[in-house]
Amino acid sequence: MTPLDYDFLRKCLKERSGVVLSADKQYLVESRLLPVARKAGLDGLGGLVAALKGGHADALMTAVVEAMMTNESFFFRDKIPFENFRSMLLPALIAARRTSRVIRIWCAAAAAGQEPYSLAMSLKEMERDIAGWRIELLATDLSNEVLEKARLGLYSQFEVQRGLPIQLLIKYFAQVGDTWQIAPGIRAMVKYRQLNLLSDFSHLGMFDLIFCRNVLIYFDQQTKIDLLDRLARVVAIDGYLVLGAAETVVGLTDSFKIVGDKHGLYVPNAQSFKPSAVPPKKLGPHLAAVNGGR
After folding, report:
1. For residue 278, what pLDDT is reported?
2. Which of 106, 191, 193, 267 satisfies CB 3.0 to 4.6 Å to 283 for a cystine?
3. How many structural domains does the chain have?
4. Phi, psi of 267 (to 5 degrees)
5. Using an 8 Å Cβ cutoff, are 284 and 193 in contact?
6. Are residues 112 and 45 both part of a single domain?
7. 96 Cβ partners below 8 Å, 6+ apart?
8. In this structure, are 84 and 224 located in the same domain?
9. What is the DSSP string of 201-259?
10. Does one domain contain both 31 and 160?
11. For residue 255, what are the domain limits?
């Protein structure tokens, strides 16, 4: 692959996904995109680039972007955000939403579903506290491929051993050959939808809690600023934003402020609160957290 071809692919990836590749990641591009070129019957990466430059290659561009996504995830990743969810965030939202008895949660980079299913299992474990409530749990990702995997809820032995407590594996999963499938009732608690975070998402409506973890680390500064400011417009003034352990809003926006010493946990800054979301379209049947499960 020539330097010009690499620069072209870097530019395409940034424009389509926001992901920024440094100049020394050519090996990564080659290893991930050569299979895409072969599958499309093209002559190596040079042929791939030529096809993309030729236009009318939307499906090929989608395949390129999806192949370059990291999609790294595992159940109850980093533990602390889920401990905060059970001990602090959900109780606070229950207290604040006693009139409507509705809580809306968005996992903004769901990958193969481990994060939203971790939240769904946590909700199921707390079903006595939310009996009669409507909990809407929306999970989105850029990649349709990983969303299909998420909808199936089918994971390898390695994947269920990463962060998933054995008692929850036994309680909420069934073994299917060499794999494990999460219970239909838990799968039904999550609504999946394809979404590019670079595009407008105000049509999703307002959320009480947004998990957007390990996304900002792949963006340049201006893209981070833009995304954070748009997230601030779809989170309730008394809602919460959860970022990854290596991510921060400091130096990027005053739309959020950190919650005490809770690293990675933020609330909207009331002084800069500018809601712009339209009422959400229905996500299908209401996703009641107290339904289903094994």
Report:
1. 57
2. 191
3. 2
4. -125, 155
5. no
6. no
7. 238
8. yes
9. -GGG--EEEEE--S-GGGS-HHHHHHHHHHHHTTEEEEEEEE--TT---TTT-SSEEEE
10. no
11. 80-272
Mark whether 260 and 161 lie in a shared domain.
Answer: yes
Do residues 148 and 13 both lie within one domain? no
pTM score of the predicted model? 0.83
pLDDT, one tens digit per residue, over 35-84 is 888 888 888 888 888 888 887 567 888 888 887 777 778 999 999 999 99
pLDDT at position 164 is 95
Evaluate whether 28 touches 67 at the Cβ level (below 8 Å).
Answer: no
For the purposes of burial, counting CB atoms within 10 Å of the CB of 33, is it exposed (0-12), middle (13-18) or buried (19 or more)? buried
Q: Quick one: the chain helix, strand, coil %, rounded to 5?
A: 45, 20, 40
- Contacts (Cβ under 8 Å, ≥6 apart) of 216: 224, 227, 228, 243, 244, 247
Same domain, 229 and 165: yes
Dihedrals phi, psi of 125, to nearest 5 degrees: -70, -20
Q: DSSP 3-state assignment of 89?
A: helix
Q: Is the distance from CB of 204 to CB of 138 less than 8 angstroms?
A: yes
d(CA 238, CA 240): 7
More confident residue, 5 or 103: 103
Cross-strand pairs, 102: 134
Q: Which of 233, 234, 242 is nearest to 266 (CA)?
A: 242
Domain end position, chosen among 43, 68, 93:
68
Half-sphere exposure of 77 (CA within 13 A, CB side): 21
| Comparison of pLDDT for 263 and 232, the residue scoring more | 232
Type of residue numbered 126? M
Those residues whose C-beta lies under 8 Å from the C-beta of residue 46, and which sit 6 or more positions away, are 1, 2, 5
Residue 41 sits in a domain whose CATH number is 1.10.155
User: Is the predicted pLDDT of residue 88 greater than 70, yes or no?
Assistant: yes
Ranges of H-type helices in 69-132: 80-84, 90-96, 114-125
